[in-house]
Amino acid sequence: MPLLRSFTSILAFLALISMPAQADTLRLGAKSIKNLFPGHYEARVRGYKVLFSAHRGGKLVGQAFGRQDRGKWFVKGSRLCVAWRKWTKGKVKCGSVSKRGMWYVASDAKGQVLSFRSVSVVALKE
Length: 126
Prior knowledge:
Order of helices and strands: HEHEEEEEEEE
Mean pLDDT: 80
Number of domains: 1
Radius of gyration: 19 Å
Strand order of the largest sheet: 2-3-4-5-6-7-8-9
Largest sheet: 8 strands, antiparallel, barrel
Strand content: over 45%
Helix content: 10-25%
Number of helices: 2
Number of strands: 9
Distance between the termini: 68 Å
Shape: globular
CATH class: Mainly Beta
């Protein structure tokens, strides 16, 4: 019995330290989301890398797989919304944004997740 209790305690401890720290996660409000832009970002979407620039006034320019797209961004409530001409076929996608370390994580009601982080320069044609 003591061996089983020790083993269970070790498993519980390992599970606890492997969980993401809640203190490292901060949900952004509307003002904080708006303050992200203008800026240049690297995003991870379903394992793929996308580079994009977001400008004041809602303009987006992005590049992935050697192809470029344009779109718009805006804040609705406390959610970031984006629509790309080609990549989302003009459909608006919105999600709440949290900061986790150096990354921002946007997640929508369907559980789709987009991670992005600030980069110094993205060379995209406007």
